[in-house]
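Record filed below.
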Amino acid sequence: MIDSPAPAWRPTGLVWTEAGAALEWLSPTGDVRANAVDLGARLSLRVGPDRRCVGLRWDGRRVPCTARAPIDAGAKSGQCDSCAAIARTRSVATDTVLDDPREFCVYLAHHGSVVKAGITATERGQARLLEQGALSSMILSAGTLLAARRCEALLTTALGVPQQVHTARKRGARLAPGTASTRAAGLLAVAEQAADLDWPPGQTRTATGPVDHTPSYGLPDGGIAPDQQIDPLQTEATINGEVVCRIGRDLYLTTPAGVVLLDTGLLQGWALNRADDDALLTARTTPVAKPRITTEVQHDVLF
C-alpha cells in the first residue's frame, strides 16, 4: 500500500532516483518526503477539496509557492504561471542557465520508433533517462554544459536526431517495445554515425555501451496496453489499483475495469487522502485507442 501523508502535504509527482520511483510530497513549509512506488504496490487515494500550486525546484531543492495559488482541476501541471515563469529563468532544460559548473553528459535515448539526443548532469546518473521514460539509452560524451549543448545541436543538425519526443509517441512505443538487443542495435547505429562528426571541444567521448531501462519500469518485451486513461481529477474521486508498471511520470494500474493509465501530473497539488483498499475506482476515465504500432527507428525530424 502506498501511503499518503496528511492532507497538508500535496504530491508534486513521480520522481526517479537510481533506487527507483517514488511519489514526492510537499508540505506548506517546504518539507519534502517521498513514498516508494514499487511494482505490485496498491495505490489507493481519495481526492480532497482543493488543488494548489506545488511551487518550483530551485538549486536542487523544492520551494513552496508563496501565494499557495489555486490550480484548475483540469490543468496538466500543478504549477501556477508565476512559479513556472520563475523556474524558467534558471533552467538547464530551457537553456536559461549556461553557467552551471557541473559535468554534463550527452546521451542518446531510445523511445521505440525514434532515438533522441539530450544532456544531463553526470551526478544524476540514470535518473534523467528514467524520468523521461527512455526504453534504453547510451552516453556519448561528458564535459562542460556549453559543449554539451553544442554536441546536442550538432546531432540534430547533422543526423536529424530530435531533442524532444512527444508523450503520445512514448506511450505508443510501450505497446510493443521490442527487445533490449534490438534497441541497443539502434542506439549503436546512431552512435557510429556520431563518431564521424567533429565533436566540439569541452566534451570527451566515452566508451559507455547501451543500457536497458525496461526492467526498472516493469515493462515486459510484449509491452503494456491500457484499456482506460484517468481524466483530470475531481473532488471526492477515488483512485485504486495495483501498480504493474511505472515509467516516466506514468503509472499503469490493474483494476476491475482492466489496465488504467494514470499520468501523475494530474495528482500534482491536490489535497489527497488514503482511500480504503477495497474502494471502487470512481475517477473519470476515457477509453484508450490503440494506435498503429511502428517498430522502425526513425532519426529524421519534421521542420
Observations:
- The CA atoms of residues 17 and 48 lie 28 Å apart.
- The radius of gyration is 20 Å.
- Helices lie at 81-88, 127-131, 145-159, 167-173, 180-195, 214-217.
